[in-house]
Protein: Exopolygalacturonase
Amino acid sequence: MTTIIIPFTLFFFFLSISSTTTLASFNIMDYGAKADGHTDAAKPLLSAWAAACGSGKPASISIPAGSFFVSKALLQGPCKNNNIRILISGTLIAPSGYSATTQWLTLKYVQGVSVLGGTIDGRGQSYWACKTAGRSCPPGATSFAIDESKDVLISGLTSLNSELFHMVIYGSSGITVQGVKITAPENSPNTDGIHIQMSSGVTVTASTIKTGDDCVSMGEGSTNVWIERVSCGPGHGIRYIGSLGGTPDEAGVQNITVKSVVLTGTQNGVRIKTWGKPNSGFVKDVTFEHVTMQNVQNPMVVDQNYCPGNTNCPNQSSGIKISKVSYTDVQGSSATPVAVKFDCSPSNPCSDLGLQDIKLTYKNKPAESYCKNAKGSTSGFIVPPSCL
Ligand SMILES: *[C@@H]1O[C@H](CO)[C@@H](O)[C@H](O)[C@H]1NC(C)=O
Ligand SMILES: *[C@@H]1O[C@H](CO)[C@@H](O)[C@H](O)[C@H]1NC(C)=O
Structure:
């Protein structure tokens, strides 16, 4: 017979492992939430958050099935642990009239938070109606904002009908968005899917985005972004927009990969757009690979002459330098004759654009391409013929 002797220190080691792997669990029902769709569950949610965030060990927050009205919730860190899971089975619903807030649900200053499952409904309809009628409307709310945070996973979330953007990732790093479904009507104004800005290490995969504006948009300071297996449309497509407010000093955009995406019936496909204004920013190392276009109005676009209403910028030249942008295996149909348009800055021409295996048709015939101030190289088959 053998006796196994576990040294005392090892025994305590096992004990400490098992205690850190058990989750402290908090259910919003225990804090007074009611799944009736109208009693404000903001306080119960914030109390559960405070408990989870204040827990010295990994914690979970449960939002059970049913419909919970939440007026507004700011889930703020820093927390005492770096492993909080928010498990959502039900639906969180926003105020129905447009709210005075600019962010409905927010994660801020957190690290190591996962949001798993669930539906959030921004109920943007009356806000859109205000905008569409041309009345003066409040600024509107982003449904879900991730601000100044690290290591956040959003998985399996459904976001419906935001007043403005569905999801905004700002000042953050290590953010993974996977398996999300974002839906708003095609004619809903500014209901962008996911907007990324001043953030690094953002991955968006296996998601479906149907909105009235951009599917995924990237603003200044977006670096190391990976977008894969995302289907877009209706909406405005995937874009980088330089100089959101036309400000002169912008953080650059670098190392962006967009891979295996399908765009259906969108206004644009993959687009880089900058204001026609002086600027010190840049866009480089952008890869578009395995992109399928189905009846997209402007499949491949670089437009450096953005000047809405022709005010404050006519006849100026964009200072944003665009280089090393590659397009590989981009195929499908264009809804307009010009499928490829590279309209770059006269003072900062686009350089190192790369095209490989492009086939875009218009009404089953080769489409056209247009180049201005654009330089680069091609390989493989290129339809429409390159103008680089
Ligand atoms: C580019 O970004 C990806 C993540 O999207 C990352 O894995 C890779 O290391 C980055 N490349 C460089 C050169 O920083
Ligand atoms: C811009 O340039 C066009 C053509 O060169 C010219 O007709 C127009 O007057 C200019 N506009 C301004 C505001 O300078």
About this structure: The radius of gyration is 24 Å. The first strand starts at residue 24 and ends at 27. The first helix runs from residue 8 to 21. The chain has two domains: 27-164, 213-309+316-388.
